[in-house]
Specification:
This protein is of the alpha+beta class. The chain is built from 3 helices and 5 strands. It is elongated, with a radius of gyration of 19 Å. The relative contact order is 0.21.
Length: 119
Amino acid sequence: LGKKTKKTKQRTHKSTIDCKNTVEDNVISLDSFVKYLAENIKHEGKKNNLGDQITVSKEGYNVSVTSKGKFSKRYLKYLSKKYLKKQDMRDYIRVIASDKNAYQLKYFNVNAGDDEDEE
């Protein structure tokens, strides 16, 4: 009796962040955002250790993170929020899930705050 080996197909996970609104308004730099993600994504417990397992690239106004194996979409949101905090933009921009594997950077709705009760 021979042992049966089970071959598992490696799945690739692709998550994207749509930065169109913020980049068009020159609020954030897409290059610095991609660089930040590439340097801060932890792989095997170490930062700046992507190897060939994880790739970070920009496609137009989108930043895409492709991983061979498991990669948490939630971790991408965490790093995005951390980047915005570092740039002092966390009060104006939020990270919202727009699709199953995608996030979008949107401005907070800033309505006219001058609508005080007039008596």
